[in-house]
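input
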Amino acid sequence: MPDPLQTLEPVTGVGLPALKNEMMLPAVLDPWAGHALYEAANLAKKVPGSKVYLVSLGQKAKLQQVMMTIAQKVSFELVAIDGPASGFTDAHEVAPALAAAIMAIPGIDKSRLLLFGGWESASRGAGATMQILGEILGITDQFEGVDEITVQDDGSFQVLERVEGGKHQVSTCAGTPAVLGWATGNLGEPRNDPQVGMANMRTVMPALQRAKPAKVAAEGVLYGRVELPKQQRNTRIVKDMPADQIAREIIEWISQK
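output
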């Protein structure tokens, strides 16, 4: 996705909106997806015989740019899909493209699949892609807003899942398959390892060459207007005003919006 630390200015072009100078913007792995990748790699180290596949949708040139950095973090095999990732896509089109790529992985055993992904996204926080993807693959055990997974000796696992009120819900799942939409997790970003990077790049470049185009243009979706949020600031300096009166004025201001 385009680096969210840059100024992402929407423009209306032919058809769907796009980002201004999108091809010039630096690309990064979505932060939410990054947490999912690092958690998956950490779990794979603890469970012998596990393998991590990174299924990513984006423009091939940008995917290559991102892989030059991400490939040094953890071991994985890339499954690339060539398509737009600017944020003006729709979860109902992205999920089927991801599902098709997953099912095309040679030797994939869906009954032993743990599907990790970002609970949200820094480019388009629909919060629905993982759910739709799981439904397409027939995986009904789904957990969203996950911060931790603990695998038991019998193959079951406990999931620490965010709920309202700043609390967590602890769930126990009997085993795979399952969908986990990750929040922040508990792991920091792994250090760069050149040896891991060289091993990953042996498969990354062929994967990019094999990337199939995906049509995720959200046809039928109409955008009335796209623009940057406007800054608004009204300052009034008042001394010695009681707290309850301040609260009433804030409530009145909010109710007018």
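quick obs: The first strand starts at residue 10 and ends at 12.
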